[in-house]
């Protein structure tokens, strides 16, 4: 019998993308992992907000919220800038992050941002 861990159940309810409705702003790509023994569940999420002066501010806020119950662990795997025009239904992802982590060349928000 296969049972879902508490961490996996929590990850199912994390929105894949949460970005401001429009404007130019920083984003981070965060990999969320289960901390439960024997559970290798993970999910990639994108967060981008105009209020953040630095990428790390977004990561710190999001990871603090997700990690508060001890079930999940977060890792920053990418970042950059987004130009979002919701009215025209256009998203342009570009740039880089000065966050001091080793980014994977495959670390891109393309797989989790809304299409079209």
UniProtKB/TrEMBL annotation:
Positions of substrate binding: 26
Presence of the UniProt keyword Cytoplasm in the record: yes
Entry's EC annotation: 3.9.1.3
Catalysed reactions listed for this entry: N(tele)-phospho-L-histidyl-[protein] + H2O = L-histidyl-[protein] + phosphate; N(pros)-phospho-L-histidyl-[protein] + H2O = L-histidyl-[protein] + phosphate
UniProt entry keywords in alphabetical sequence: Cytoplasm, Hydrolase, Protein phosphatase
Gene Ontology CC terms, in alphabetical order: cytosol
Main location: cytoplasm
Active-site residues, Swiss-Prot/TrEMBL: 55 (proton acceptor)
MF (Gene Ontology): protein histidine phosphatase activity
Locations listed in the record: Cytoplasm
Family matches, as InterPro entries: Janus, Janus_sf
Record has Magnesium as a keyword: no
Source superkingdom: Eukaryota
Family as reported in the entry's similarity comment: Belongs to the janus family.
Biological role: Exhibits phosphohistidine phosphatase activity.
Subunit record text: Monomer.
This protein's name: 14 kDa phosphohistidine phosphatase
Organism taxonomic ancestry: Eukaryota, Metazoa, Chordata, Craniata, Vertebrata
């Amino acid at each position: 019998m296969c049972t879902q861990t508490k961490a996996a159940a929590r990850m199912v309810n994390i929105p894949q993308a949460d970005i401001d409705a429009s404007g130019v702003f920083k984003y981070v790509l965060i990999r969320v992992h289960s901390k439960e023994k024997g559970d290798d569940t993970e999910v990639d999420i994108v967060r981008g907000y105009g209020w953040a002066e630095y990428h790390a501010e977004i990561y710190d806020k999001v990871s603090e919220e997700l990690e508060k119950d001890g079930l999940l662990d977060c890792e920053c795997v990418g970042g950059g800038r987004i130009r979002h025009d919701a009215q025209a239904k256009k998203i342009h992802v570009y740039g880089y992050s000065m966050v001091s982590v080793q980014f994977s060349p495959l670390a891109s928000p393309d797989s989790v941002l809304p299409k079209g």
